[in-house]
Specification:
- The complex is a heterodimer of chains A (about 240) and B (about 290).
- Chain A has eleven helices and ten strands.
- Chain A is α/β, with parallel strands linked by helices.
- Chain A has one domain: P-loop containing nucleotide triphosphate hydrolases (Rossmann fold, 3-Layer(aba) Sandwich).
- In chain A, the strands form two sheets. Chain A has a six-stranded mixed sheet with strand order 6-7-8-3-9-10, sandwiched between helices. Chain A has a four-stranded antiparallel sheet with strand order 2-1-4-5, with helices on one face.
- In chain A, helix 3 packs parallel to helix 7.
- The longest helix of chain A has 16 residues.
- Chain B is mostly helical and about 290 residues long.
- Chain B has a single domain, classed as ABC transporter involved in vitamin B12 uptake, BtuC.
- A two-stranded antiparallel sheet of chain B has the order 1-4. Chain B has a two-stranded antiparallel ribbon with strand order 2-3.
- In chain B, strand 2 and strand 3 form a beta hairpin.
- Chain B is globular.
- The chains are: A alpha/beta (about 240), B mainly alpha (about 290).
- At the A-B interface, helix 2, helix 3, helix 4 and helix 7 of A face helix 6 and helix 7 of B.
Chain lengths: ~240, ~290
């Protein structure tokens, strides 16, 4: 396991007067798959959106590769190597599959780092052959599973050093969920660093090196994926007994 | 031959509406707001061109370019000062602000340029083209207007479909949060949209006043409302929709004036709009939003 690449320390986030995140701290090391699990409203997505710069914490610090993320304007965060696959996929439905992928590489084109985009496109098509077949189709015509693949491919196009995924299994048929998690496992093997937010705790913990359990805006338990999978309390609360 | 003449003047008027409607529709697409001050930007553009040509005796093309520069800057400034602070405000607050900006521009023009109508010198000085041994006469202004509209449409289609910034613009208009997650600077993209829309408004102002030469501080408001109607007619948010809506509105207006009644022409235009919206609530080329589950 490498050095910590992402360090979140004691962040507090509010939605108006609602205190959504109450002092969460955790870290992700290079090459690790870390998962945040918890029920609806535990603050998992809020945490990811705060790291991505969509939300600003009232207090606390977030550092990414040694740099203070809170001092970086949100649109520059992607350039630093942090990409998010948002909850509900949020692909651009009226753009083609290829255009969606190109948008993922948006910041790379800006700074004369456009070389390699074509190769990465092929790499993404390698992970998700369905996307290649449909590259000229409007993204809105894809099925739910294909849309999730597109959202993941789009995030990969920025060549992220850390990939954050928010509920990749949401709304997908069990067979597709398995497929998505197989791909996450494959990415892990190639050395990708992933922060995974999931309600499907069993799936998430089975691919993760470590996990944090969130409850109403706080970290209540942490441990390796196996530890958490076998913990009776976790089993009872999140894995259905 | 008169019929053909009506069609041509309808297309010319419609081209002006279409160019204005593009500004409405692009801004609506990205900022989800109706910029009711857009019509008044047209008026500002026309005044800038008028003063450049009539007072400072600059060539018309320089007048047009100056008008575009001033309007582009005006659009960016208005967005930055009036609309950006309201990015998260309810849409009603933004709408009222836009109406306020519209009056602000009109009153500023009144103060600067007085209410006396100015005779706008056409930027196209050549007379008209005679066809079919003089039976059909088409003024060059009309031709220039229609050609300009076509060129603008081609450029915009290329820009939004092929360029990096154009695609970023489409991404922002679909989902600003997701666009930001791609590393797109959403604020800069919105500014750019206002800049393009306002620059086009300047062209529209010059073309409008070249055909209908009375220039007053209120000159922009009626064409502004008509162009807004055209944008809704074609499907607000859609660029081809703005073109189609604008052209149809122009042709319907001229036909209504010619065959029904000059006084009733606007009523006819809006009646057609109401019927279209009853049948197709999203407009002719509008996209009905649906979510995949």
């Amino acid at each position: 396991m490498g050095a910590p690449i992402l360090k979140v320390e004691d962040i507090n986030v509010y939605y108006g007067s609602i205190h959504a995140i109450k002092g969460i701290s955790f870290e992700v090391c290079e090459g690790e798959v870390v998962t945040l699990i918890g029920a609806n409203g535990a603050g998992k997505s809020t945490t990811l959106n705060t790291i991505s710069g969509l939300l600003r914490p009232a207090s606390g610090s977030i550092s990414f590769m040694g740099k203070d993320l809170l001092r970086v304007p949100p649109h520059r965060i992607v350039e630093m190597g942090l990409a998010q696959v948002p909850e509900g996929r949020r692909i651009f439905l009226h753009m083609t599959v290829k255009e969606n992928l190109e948008m993922g590489a948006f910041t790379r084109e800006a700074h004369g780092k456009a070389q390699g985009i074509e190769e990465d496109l092929e790499k993404v098509y390698g992970f998700f052959p369905r996307l290649k077949e449909r590259s000229r189709q409007q993204a809105g015509t894809l099925s739910g599973g294909e849309q999730q693949m597109l959202a993941m491919g789009r995030a990969l196009m920025s060549r992220p050093k850390l990939l954050m995924m928010d509920e990749p299994s949401m709304g997908l048929a069990p067979i597709l969920v398995e497929q998505i998690f197989d791909i996450i496992g494959d990415m892990h093997k190639t050395g990708a660093t992933i922060l995974l937010v999931e309600q499907n705790a069993r799936m998430a913990l089975s691919v993760a090196d470590r996990g944090y359990v969130l409850e109403t805006g706080k970290v209540v338990t942490t441990g390796t994926g196996e530890e958490l999978l076998s913990s009776p309390a976790i089993k009872k609360a999140y894995l259905g007994g | 031959m008169t019929f053909l003449n009506f069609v041509i003047s309808g297309l010319s008027l419609g081209s002006v509406y279409a160019i204005i409607a593009l500004g409405y529709t692009m801004v609506y697409g990205i900022a989800k707001m109706l910029n009711f001050a857009h019509g008044d930007v047209i008026m500002v553009g026309a005044y800038i061109c008028f003063y450049s040509v009539s007072r400072f005796h600059l060539p018309p093309i320089v007048g047009v370019i100056l008008a575009m520069i001033v309007c582009t800057m005006l659009g960016i400034i208005v967005e930055r000062l009036a609309y950006k602070p309201l990015r998260r405000a309810p849409s009603l607050a933004v709408l009222i602000t836009a109406i306020g900006v519209s009056y602000f521009l009109q009153n500023s023009a009144l103060l600067l340029w007085t209410s006396n109508p100015k005779m706008f010198p056409s930027v196209v000085t050549k007379g008209s083209l005679k066809l079919f041994s003089g039976q059909l006469s088409v003024s060059y202004v009309t031709i220039v207007t229609i050609v300009t509209c076509i060129v603008i449409m081609i450029c915009l289609t290329w820009f939004t479909g092929r360029t990096r910034m154009g695609k970023a613009m489409r991404a922002c208009s679909e989902d600003k949060g997701a666009a930001q997650l791609m590393g797109i600077n959403v604020n800069a993209t919105i500014s750019l949209t206002f800049a393009i829309g306002s620059g086009l408004a300047a062209i529209a102002g010059v073309l409008l006043c070249s055909s209908y030469p009375t220039l007053m501080p209120t000159t922009g408001s009626m064409p502004g409302i008509k162009a807004f109607t055209a944008a809704v007619f074609g499907g607000i948010g859609s660029i081809p929709g703005a073109l189609l809506g604008g052209l149809m509105l122009g042709v319907i207006e001229i036909f209504a004036k010619a065959y029904i009644s000059t006084q009733l022409s606007d009523a006819v235009v809006f009646a057609v709009l109401i019927i279209v919206l009853l049948v197709k609530p999203a407009g002719l080329l509008g996209i009905e939003m649906q979510e995949k589950v």
